[in-house]
Write a structure and sequence with these properties.
Layout lengths: L2 H26 L15 H7 L3 E2 L8 E9 L3 H5 L6 E6 L4 E10 L14 H11 L13 E5 L4 E5 L1 E2 L3 E2 L6 E6 L5 E6 L3 E12 L2 H10 L10 E14 L3 E13 L5 E7 L4 E2 L4 E2 L4
């Protein structure tokens, strides 16, 4: 056996594997556009500003305590889908998401236009009135937290906990896709009902601490000259059990890069960790 040849092949393999891993990292994070500001005398916001990163939302300093929330599974969308009119609708049993295409676009009466970047209160009210139409949407009036993505012409409306904390992660959202005339062409909807507070509350990290955690990881660090568009304290799916789901407080950080690409980083507000896809476990 030619051990020398085998040794060379192994060395070549590991070199190629290292190159492959490096390319994966470069594709995930634009290394060329990141410069590390390692100055302990600067706050996280100052460090971000040093890298040309602007922060649109106000950074709250209030320290809060929030509970875990429990929500039972529901078949509301599937059961009530037959009441919908002026649309072709279908329900995905796996994702629990209803998808619908309107036979004719729903006119928003110019509530949104090409100049719209952030929805005003009047625009939110106009869209909310459309969502409240029971012929077109199932319990659409229960969705109260609005986000608009102008590049995609997409309006996202989320249900909230205690009329304050939006539920992120597309388990209680309506996504309205607008056409070139800024009328509603189609939508998807997910739904939760019967939220219950679990007794114990936990201290949650502040927005500033969430930004610090996000900026310490190479896979979530923002490229230079990005813009943090939204910084929202809400709830996201934590565990899925057989009978119900557990939701935990999170910081939802939405940003746009200078090339127009948009992204989201979610931070567990109790544990102070970056959130990856929710864990599914079986209930005994």
């Amino acid at each position: 056996m030619d051990f020398r040849r085998i040794q060379l092949l192994l060395i070549g393999f590991f070199i190629l594997f290292d190159i492959y891993l490096a390319l994966l990292l470069i594709n995930r994070v634009d290394i060329q556009s990141i410069s590390i500001v390692d100055n302990p005398n600067l706050t996280i916001t100052q460090q971000l500003q040093e890298r040309g990163i602007s922060i649109v939302p106000h950074i709250e300093e209030e320290i809060k305590e929030l509970p875990l929330m429990k929500a039972a599974y529901t078949t509301t969308l599937k059961d009530q889908m037959g009441q919908l009119k002026d649309q072709e609708a279908s329900y995905d049993e796996t994702t629990k998401v209803l998808s619908a295409q309107f036979t004719q676009p729903i006119n928003l009466n110019k509530a949104v236009s090409g100049e719209t970047t952030v929805l005003s209160q009047d625009q939110e009210q106009a869209i909310g009135e459309v969502l409240a139409n029971e012929d077109w949407f199932i319990h659409g009036d229960e969705y109260q937290h609005f986000i608009y993505l102008p590049q995609s012409r997409l309006v996202i409306v989320r249900k909230t906990v205690d009329d304050e904390y939006p539920i992120v992660g597309n388990t209680a959202e309506i996504h309205l896709l607008l056409n070139e005339n800024y009328d509603i062409e189609s939508y998807t909807q997910s739904y939760l009902d019967g939220f219950h507070t679990l007794a114990e509350t936990y201290p949650v990290i502040t927005a500033r601490e969430a930004l610090t955690i996000q900026d310490k990881r190479i896979d979530t660090m923002l490229p230079n000259d990005s813009t943090i568009e939204r910084l929202v304290l809400g709830y996201a799916l934590f565990y899925s059990l057989d009978q119900y789901q557990i939701y935990s407080p999170v910081w939802h950080i939405s940003y746009s890069r200078r090339d127009g690409v948009e992204g989201v980083v979610t931070i567990d507000a109790r544990r102070g960790e970056v959130v990856y896809p929710a864990t599914t476990i079986n209930q005994e």
